[in-house]
Amino acid sequence: MLMALAAAMEGVHAQGGLLLNELLYQPRSGEAEYVELYNPTNEAIDLADYQIIRWVNGALGTSYPLPHHTVGAKDYVVLTKDAASVTANYAGVLMGKVVECTLPPYPNDGGAVVLADAVGTVVERLDYSSAMHSLLLRNKAGVSLERRSTERPCNEASNWFSASSTAGYGTPTLPNSQSTEYLAEEADFELSSEIVSPDGDGYQDELAIDYRLEESGIHADMAIYDAGGRPVRRLLNAALLGTYGSIVWDGRGERGSQLPQGRYVLVVKLYDLQGTRQTIRRHVSVVNP
Predict the structure, then answer these.
(1) Do 182 and 148 contact (CB within 8 A), yes or no?
(2) How many other CB atoms sit within 10 Å of the CB of residue 104?
(3) Residues 166, 136: contact at Cβ < 8 Å?
(4) Interval 101-130 mean pLDDT
(5) 231-234: which pairs have CB atoms within 8 A and are 24 or more residues apart?
(6) CA distance 8 to 173
């Protein structure tokens, strides 16, 4: 019976219910794993109508019923054995959307996450492995796998990728940094202003660099150069970007040094694993009091 059900669920894409959306299977030492679910519907869903099932040696194993918790329409819930660990180690986590519960172990060398309804019918399965991560990541500990699109099948390896470094390598309870639902027609970086004045008066003290990209898996170097072409501040070094995000520059040089008033250039160097490269330049002026 279990084997038949396991075979039947291959390729299943859930309709009208919770979806698997993010997975941290290899936490840093002393931290906790988590599984994020997403409710794509326009109605609230009771988490207790679902369960997580362990996948062992190609078959369904122990069931882990989920507690009562309302998952709002178009909203997220994160499952973990240690809510404090998740909220302490990832930025912007919404504590009311983190639910403590018992989960199966998720081996670092690969495995599967199985989401089923309350009667045991499998909704989605994710077969995960380290090969889904960016090949440029040296250390995968603490880096979650994010689903790129809820419109594509869950168990499609190319539909998952490493959370971006600019998002802290994980986005529990928040929109995924690698979501392909934030596409732009072309790579684009926009500045919040052409002037930055780091004088602490609350006006233009910082410069926000907002970006949207067509694809995930793009890495970037980002630095500020003076008029003579000399680098004065490195903002990113081989950072894995999401499909959207923001980087903030405080208008200062390395180690917080004050820069001379004048014109500077933001240089962004983008590259992917296929060897495609692109350089973007934006001009900005530093104004001192």
Answers:
(1) no
(2) 20
(3) no
(4) 96
(5) 232/259, 232/264, 233/259
(6) 30
pTM of the model: 0.77
Is residue 183 included in any domain, yes or no? no
Average pLDDT, the chain: 89
Same domain, 6 and 109: yes
Residue with tokens 């168990």: 155
The stretch 172-183 carries a mean pLDDT of 80
CB within 8 A of 63, min separation 6: which ones? Answer: 51, 52, 53, 54, 116, 120
138 plus 24 within the same structural domain = yes
Read off the pLDDT of residues 87-96 as tens digits, 9 standing for 90 and up.
Answer: 999 999 999 9
User: Above pLDDT 70, what percent of the chain?
Assistant: 92
Q: Which amino acid is at 150?
A: T
Segment 218-240 shows an average pLDDT of 93
Q: What is the pLDDT of residues 268-287, one digit of tens each?
A: 888 888 777 787 888 899 99
Q: Does residue 181 form part of some domain?
A: no
Q: Which residues contact 44 (CB under 8 A, 6 or more apart)?
A: 70, 71, 72, 73
* Counted domains in the chain: 2
CA-based nearest residue to 20, from 133, 128, 135: 128
Can you give the pLDDT at residue 189? 86
What pLDDT, on a 0 to 100 scale, did the predictor assign at position 215?
83
Least Cα distance to 101 among 125, 77, 133, 76 occurs for 77
Q: CA angle 206-212-215, nearest 5°? A: 145
Q: Provide the residue range defining the domain that includes 65.
A: 2-167
Q: Outline where DSSP puts E strands in the chain.
A: 19-24, 34-39, 45-46, 50-56, 59-65, 70-71, 75-80, 98-100, 111-117, 122-128, 145-147, 160-162, 188-191, 195-196, 207-212, 219-225, 231-240, 244-249, 262-271, 277-286
CATH number for the domain spanning 141: value is: 2.60.40.1260
